[in-house]
Specification:
Elements lengths: L1 H22 L5 E5 L5 E6 L1 H5 L20 H14 L1 E7 L12 E8 L5 E8 L6 H6 L11 H18 L4 E8 L1 H6 L3 H18 L6 E3 L4 E6 L5 H15 L7 E8 L7 H16 L18 H17 L4 E9 L5 E9 L10 H10 L3 H21 L6 E6 H4 L2 H12 L8 E6 L7 H12 L4 E7 L4 H8 L4 E4 L1 H7 L3 H16 L3 E4 L5 H9 L4 E3 L11 H11 L1
Parallel strand pairs: 11-12, 12-13, 13-14, 14-15, 15-16, 16-17
Antiparallel strand pairs: 1-2, 1-5, 3-4, 4-5, 6-8, 6-9, 7-8, 10-11, 10-17
Helix pairs in contact: 5-9, 7-8, 9-10, 12-14
């Protein structure tokens, strides 16, 4: 009897010591390994991490459960722990069924020779962890504590990458608190701050990792969450919270739209741009996907529809599957054609023209405009060569986004293209457009100077629409500026405006830059810009964009006769 009691006491002491050791290494899953790294005890959330129940783990080789790339590291860390007594925190992943990987897992532990030379290991799910560069760039809305639009897109991107690797599913909800902004404006600051903090807390608590929710506008909020989050109940709780805080007891009506937010195999760099574009389109209450069969086709999968459009757009651009039309720029006052501007045209699967401005905005927001610009350069140089072979000498200006000038890969590719096409470069001009602001002007100026070494003339487009134009003109060597048509119309309405326009032209002439007037559609506008000293003009008065430039010669011959 005494032996039985002694044996039982010894067993209980071992059990006590085991849990005492495990207490040092808190985690979601606690493991005890023998000297051969085999599991002798497991407790905790093993299903989610290892894909097996705790009772099924006994006797399993711990390192054999790891994803292959982590086995050498963990084996070495265990050997180190045998010498040092402890294992510092490292991040690992485990192989699960169906060839999926576990979420990122933080692993730490101890080696205790007094307890049978066993290892005591704690595993903690680390899916919430974000890369340091993302954490360092995060910005928040001060009043709610929620992520701002750009930060939300970055964090959502990280969660979607983890989702793709682990097989989990997420949904994205856009929540609108109708009349929330005027309510907040009529509240006292303290009460308003408390309400904002409460709304932020509601959304964060229901989002992935407790911090994948953002404020996207005065009354719009976005949240990435698990599919089982009861959005209807959350709406009611927020409505009750706002009504209780409203001095008038009215509150707001909350409306939500839920969409799938899953991804296929998409490069992370493109994923970030696609997520941001998708969120913005979603918030605009426009349909969700950019396609060529339907410009904004309805779909249940927000990000995938965007990337389907990106892939379609990329294929068409890389294969030069788009149309180009040419609009003349004429010299004043005689109206002789000086050169043509090449303008891109895309059509959907039904042959309908896609609005060019929407297309350019899409390409810039998803970081693909440089591919279109390079394709236009290739297409234009090829076209110039074909014209030269038929005896026609034509100068063509190709639009290049300011965003592309900030892309070193584009600039290097453009230089390589120019080096292969010396015989056509005398007929090529480049127009720098400001649809996307140039952030590093000095770098852009260096690339422009490199382009000019090939004999390519440079035009600064949309001049006069922003203060940044004068910074560009000061920093960059250009040959022409093109003044925006709306700026011309507004200036020419008054004596003061006309004087300003004359001064602008004189400034350009003083630094050997010629001036083009854009969107000239009447004889009156032509006469006004001629008196103001403009050198060139472009607009429907002189010719619409045409695919066949011979139409311009026939039209002029008809006018003379």
């Amino acid at each position: 009897m005494d032996k039985l009691i002694k044996a039982r006491t010894t067993e209980l002491r071992k059990e006590r010591n085991r849990f005492a050791a495990l207490a040092f290494v808190w985690g979601d899953l606690l493991l005890e390994l023998d000297g051969d790294f085999r599991i002798v005890f497991a407790s905790g959330a093993s299903d989610g991490i290892l894909g097996r129940r705790p009772q099924d783990l006994a006797g399993k080789l711990f390192t054999g459960l790891l994803a292959k790339q982590f086995r050498p590291l963990v084996t070495e860390m265990l050997h180190v722990a045998r010498r040092r007594g402890r294992m510092d925190n490292i991040q690992v992943r485990f192989a699960q069924r169906n060839e999926l990987l576990s979420p990122p897992v933080s692993m730490s532990g101890y080696f205790l020779p007094d307890l049978g030379d066993h290892f005591f290991v704690a595993l903690r799910v680390a899916i919430n962890a974000l890369p340091p560069e993302v954490v360092g760039s995060i910005k928040r809305d001060n009043s709610t504590g929620l992520l701002d639009e750009e930060s939300l897109s970055k964090v959502v991107t990280e969660r979607l990458v983890a989702q793709r690797e682990t097989g989990t599913e997420h949904k994205f909800t856009l929540m609108t608190l109708n009349a929330f902004d005027p309510l907040c404006k009529r509240m006292e600051q303290i009460e308003r701050n408390e309400l904002m903090a409460s709304v932020g807390a509601f959304l964060r608590a229901h989002s992935v990792a407790g911090d994948t929710a953002g404020r996207l506008g005065a009354e719009q909020f976005g949240m990435l969450h698990r599919p089982d989050v009861p959005i209807g109940d959350l709406e009611k709780r927020i409505e009750e919270c706002v009504r209780d805080a409203d001095p008038k007891g009215i509150g707001v009506e909350v409306s939500s739209t839920v969409t799938d937010f899953t991804t296929d195999v998409i490069p992370p760099g493109d994923l970030a741009r696609g997520v941001l574009y998708s969120i913005r389109r979603f918030c605009d209450h426009q349909e969700h996907g950019f396609t060529f069969s339907r410009l904004m086709g309805q779909t249940g999968n927000l990000v995938n529809s965007t990337f389907s459009a990106m892939q379609d757009f990329g294929k068409r651009v890389d294969r030069l599957k788009f149309d180009v039309v040419y609009q003349p720029i004429v010299r004043l006052p005689n109206g002789e054609i000086h050169h043509f501007e090449a303008l891109v045209r895309f059509h959907d699967d039904d042959g309908k023209l896609i609005p060019t401005q929407e297309l350019i905005a899409f390409a810039e927001q998803v970081n693909m405009i440089h591919r279109l610009d390079l394709a236009m350069l290739r297409r234009s140089l090829k076209w110039i060569k074909s014209q030269l072979e038929t005896g026609i000498t034509v100068r063509v200006a190709v639009n290049i986004s300011g965003h592309s000038l900030s892309n070193p890969d584009f600039c290097r590719s453009a230089v390589a293209l120019f080096e292969r096409n010396h015989e056509t470069l005398q007929q090529l001009m480049i127009e720098i457009t400001e649809t996307s602001e140039i952030r590093d002007i000095d770098n852009a100026a260096r690339w422009i100077a490199r382009f000019r070494e090939f004999g390519i003339e440079i035009c600064l487009d949309d001049f006069g629409t922003g203060a940044s134009n004068f910074r560009y003109l000061s920093a960059m060597d250009v040959d022409y500026v093109k003044v925006d048509g709306e700026s011309i119309r507004q200036s020419m309405k008054t004596i003061k405006g006309q004087a300003f326009m004359r001064s602008l032209v004189e400034l350009c002439h003083d630094i050997d830059v010629e001036v083009v007037g854009e969107m000239i559609e009447s004889d009156q506008m032509r006469d006004l810009i001629t008196k103001a000293g403009f050198d060139f003009a472009q607009g429907y008065l002189f010719g619409k964009p045409e695919a066949d430039i011979s139409l311009y010669w026939r039209d002029r011959a008809g006018r003379r006769s």
